[in-house]
């Protein structure tokens, strides 16, 4: 770690020296020392330190273009480099000009955003649905900064940006749909099992009824524990039923491109949350039932509950991890380059 930090510090020192030298060079000299190629390469790989240092040394470097007339922001969009693209908000007076640029294929920035992101970027999301959501966030972020006429402009192939986006993401939409259906189907099975168990437990764990009053025997003998059991059982039954209905809703939903932006993630979050509450309540009801039947045998109760928790500990991390990933991907989308910068 020390060596890495030391090397990083030395590189920054070298970069500062080079930037001071570049501040006094004219355009031919900048081409000769490959300064324009360097800043384009930094944009492709998201090396923001190089870009910042070079643009402060010589602002003209921000206008660098490759043979296809693509500048640093075009490469930032193609390679999904968020921090580089955010710099467009810091270029006063030229933002609109840059956002309206076209390459040799008559592609504007929105056409480039319509291209499928690199695999290294997409693989940072665990499933195709979240990958599609991220691609939509990028397209929307670029759409917010370009001139309205760019949204209907055609490239050399006669394609509008949205048409190009649909074509390039057709397979990703299908993969996202398959993942959503398979995941919803799996959780529907889990929820159905919980419904079956908790419905049966609600009527079989009462310990019979008093012949005179009709009150459940365990309610009379273990009043507090029985109330905990019934309450946890009811919560588990209701939440698992809600979860199953939500996942069935997901299974029967349509899967248009824009559904991956908000509708599908929100449905999944609701289904996962209710399923998590259901599993937790089921374990509380199980513990209360054991306490009622084995009161005084604390060692046996602790041993059985400890073993019963094992399968739950396998399921709950999966639910929490998926819920957390969906939440972060959906509600932290503003961290992408957008009109706020």
From TrEMBL:
The keyword Transmembrane applies. The chain crosses the membrane at residues 187-208, 228-251, 272-294, 300-322. It comes from the Eukaryota. InterPro entries: PGG_dom. Residues 178-292 form the PGG domain. One of its GO terms (cellular component) is membrane. Keywords: Membrane, Transmembrane, Transmembrane helix. This is PGG domain-containing protein. It comes from Arachis hypogaea. The lineage of its organism: Eukaryota, Viridiplantae, Streptophyta, Embryophyta, Tracheophyta.
